[in-house]
Write a structure and sequence with these properties.
Radius of gyration: 17 Å
Structural class: alpha/beta
Helix content: 40-55%
Low-confidence stretches: 9-17, 237-247
Number of strands: 8
Strand content: 15-25%
CATH superfamily: Vaccinia Virus protein VP39
CATH class: Alpha Beta
Number of domains: 1
Mean pLDDT: 84
Strand order of the largest sheet: 1-4-3-2-5-6-8-7
């Protein structure tokens, strides 16, 4: 049964988007659960520390392209913001609903919207913070997607995007050696092969009317890892990975409107 915190948008708006089928969505879910279970807790802490001051009035925050919902779930646990999860794929909404229900996150904490970034249904100047992780490379027209996000963002609001950079054949070979689940491997390789260079990202924002954009590497702070030490230990992060402030396989953009 569908939860009552779901916002449905007219399906004709989704014609530009190529969506994963159910097997692909399940592979994405498995990837976050088995290969990088630590990432969304660390990312949520990073977002809260960097963009949401503790004890402040609840802010309206959109996760643009939430996928199976792990970042939304973590943000619900560490912030009192008004959370809205957006995805154009109804299967991802189903997976997110199930995840939130499993963790007993109340309906009023998160609203889920079936919406298309190219034609967002939100009014102008709506959101205080728009985050997007690993989604921009899916967009048919990223320039239009950025314009829509900037339209929805409030004056003085912040946009925070992270996505994949193009990677080398050597890294793809390393993935093939390390990842045994072929569906998960396909998801990771697809993101890598569709990754955008920093120059291309800068061109996208410039074409969307956002100038003087700095496209950096995705960067976490040491405090983000410290705040998640219990989770990292649980997932055998310590010893398996070297906690680094920079992840050079991903780019990062922060825009203050």
């Amino acid at each position: 049964m569908l939860r009552d915190n779901v916002c449905y948008i007219v399906w004709t708006q989704l014609k530009f988007v190529t969506m994963l089928d159910r097997a692909g969505c399940m592979a994405c879910k498995t990837m976050f659960e088995t290969e990088i279970p630590w990432l969304n807790p660390v990312l949520a802490q990073h977002i809260v520390r960097r963009f949401l001051s503790s004890g402040s009035t609840p802010k309206t925050m959109i996760d643009m392209g939430m996928g199976p919902g792990y970042l939304v779930k973590e943000l619900a646990a560490v912030t009192n913001a008004r959370l809205i999860g957006v995805d154009c794929n109804p299967i991802m909404l189903e997976l997110t609903q199930a995840l939130l229900a499993t963790h007993e996150i109340p309906n009023e904490r998160v609203t889920l919207c079936l919406d298309d970034v190219h034609h967002l249904s939100f009014p102008d100047n709506f959101a205080d913070l728009i985050v997007s992780f690993g989604c921009v490379h899916h967009w048919h027209d990223p320039v239009l997607g950025v314009r829509q996000c900037m339209r929805v963002l409030k004056p003085s609001g912040t946009l925070f995007f992270i996505d994949a950079l193009p990677i080398t054949d050597a890294i793809i070979q390393h993935l093939e050696e390390q990842i045994k689940d072929q569906e998960v491997l396909w998801i990771l390789k697809k993101a890598a092969l569709e990754g955008l260079s920093r120059g291309r990202v800068k061109d996208i924002f410039t074409s969307a009317g956002v100038h003087d954009v700095h496209v950096g590497y995705a960067q976490f702070d040491h405090e983000d890892f410290l705040m998640c030490m219990d989770i990292l230990s649980e997932h055998q992060f310590i010893g398996k990975y070297e906690p680094s402030k920079q992840f050079f396989s991903s780019w990062e953009v922060v825009i203050n409107k």
